[in-house]
Amino acid sequence: MDLQTAYYRAIAFVILFIATKIILNILGSTLNFLAELPILRSVNHLGGAVLGFAEIYLILFFLLYAGSLTPVSEIQSAIDKSSLAQSMITHTPYFSNLLKEIWVAFAGLIG
């Protein structure tokens, strides 16, 4: 698989990721009345903080991973110079492997 094909597949993956997030946000807002129950309110705040951190981490990871596949040298240079970006890409092996498997499986379906 060439670099340009991987780049376009990464863009498609990000679009699907965003669409899924929008759908889940709509579903979550319909169930928002449960969050107002007194017992669940404190659990909801803590759980929201944990899930919010996980969500932002995953979004940043996918953007950095997709950016590392782009054929634009400025983006790759910026990622190479960032120790935080390098750390996120190399120290998140589960998602790195999962993302590779998804793209390979997707390539098998198309090609």
From TrEMBL:
Name recorded for this polypeptide: CvpA family protein
Record keywords, A-Z: Membrane, Transmembrane, Transmembrane helix
Subcellular location, record wording: Membrane
Transmembrane segments: 6-34, 46-67
InterPro entries per the UniProt record, alphabetical: Colicin-V_CvpA
Domain of life per record: Bacteria
Single GO BP term: toxin biosynthetic process
Record's bilayer topology term: Multi-pass membrane protein
Pfam families: Colicin_V (PF02674)
Main location: membrane
UniProt GO cellular component terms: membrane
